[in-house]
Amino acid sequence: MPRDALAALQLARLQALARRVYERVPFYRAAFDRAGVRPDQIRALDDLRRLPTTRKTDLRDQYPFGLFAVPMNQIVRLHASSGTTGKPTVVGYTRADLGVWAEVCARALAASGAQPGDVFHNAYGYGLFTGGLGMHYGGELMGLAVVPVSGGNTERQLLLIQDFRPRVIACTPSYMLTLAEAAVERGLDLAALSLRYAVLGAEPWTDAMRRQIERQLPLKAVNIYGLSEVIGPGVSNECVEAQDGSHVFEDHFLVEALDPKTGDPVAPGEPGELVFTTLTKEALPLIRYRTGDIASLDPAPCRCGRTHVRMSLVIGRTDDMLSIRGVNVFPSQVETVLVRFDELSPHYQLVVTRPRTLDELEARIEVAPEWPGAARAFDAAGAAATALREHVASRLRGVLGIGVHVTLVAPGQLPRSEGGKLRRVVDERRR
To answer: What Rg, from alpha-carbon coordinates, does the chain have?
Structure first.
């Protein structure tokens, strides 16, 4: 769609959205009144900045259904977050919402290389988590044969991949590595697997991890982005032609990138906090929802032909960004260093402590099983291990700007993904 036509569609949908939430959601009526703005004052897309932002705490404060804009007899599906840090965030869907969700997930799969008739191995978790069911109905809508395997049970996953011969797989990037590692351990020929496209998301990852996955498996790995509050998976997706930023489906989701501290827009290409306005959702419409995800936006045309703005891979979150001695550190920065070492595996964990008055950062990293020094890597006096630790520490200092204590551990000692999000950071300062 030409950008001017898209902008006209967005404005019409934004105006309708503002009227709807003002009339139907007391939370938004009060927020609009505090901001001194009424729906009829939204006359251009730039007027979006006059509207209040919404945070995850607002969803928790309105738990469970306080932000719904339709009566419960129109709700046909409920999902919720895990609630590990408090009350879960609850999201609802009308029948029309489920149709939009299936459509954007089908778009994501098509952009990833899927074609009608393909077998689709869906290893995202089902249940209250939105990943599995969102991709499931998107796959069915575009005519894929969906295998609803869900997460975990790696042995069964590998069996089904061998026997059903899917061309497309969806899972977290860390679980993709787990599957590849398990296949090697079982003596499978990775090059002989049928997989050609991997739709990976639900956790931050890097281009370096993409290259690692594509070196191990005969496929193209693309990023999918979403979050349950906005709709679930299918907010944006990379195209397989370019693999250079995820196209935000802007006819449904209006996106901004803001300075996390000031709330001001950042320039194209500059990292900022992603903020989404849901233009077409009925049950849980959100105005300027602050995701906490840090990424940049690129409005330049893509060689695939799509005109939607592209967002970079998420480089971190405002709530998982580590501030160590005044320096901001994202796990993804560490990952970009580690994957460049053939002696190391992609499995790592960051541990932050404060033994005295200053913060200390430790990077626990598994050595690669095939590294000749693996058997000696845990002998502090071993020359090979010492040299590797010092080399890695030097690289990390150059990227992060702070010293990092590097600990090498044996293969298989660090946590593995079983289909869900992998915990990379242990912050012991809070205990």
So the answer is: 22
- 321, 256 in Cβ contact below 8 A? no
Q: Where are the beta strands (DSSP E) in 272-417?
A: 272-278, 289-295, 297-298, 310-311, 316-317, 322-324, 327-329, 344-353, 360-367, 405-409
Q: Which residue has the higher pLDDT, 414 or 75?
A: 75
Strand residues in 65-184 grouped as ranges (E): 77-80, 90-93, 119-122, 145-147, 168-171
Tell me the CA distances in angstroms from 420 to 82, 156, 170, 203, 341, one per residue in order. 11, 16, 12, 9, 26
Give the residues across from 119 on adjacent strands: 145
Distance, in Å, from the CA atom of 184 to the CA atom of 181, rounded to the nearest integer, reads: 5
| DSSP SS3 for 40 | helix
**How many CB atoms lie under 10 A from the CB of residue 37?**
17
Q: What is the pLDDT of residues 338-351, one digit of tens each?
A: 888 989 988 899 99
Pairing of strands 246-248, 232-238: antiparallel
> Positive or negative CA dihedral for 429, 178, 222, 93?
negative
Q: Supply 319's token pair.
A: 């709530």
Query: Is this structure's pTM higher than 0.90?
Result: no
Cα(354)–Cα(359) distance, integer angstroms: 5
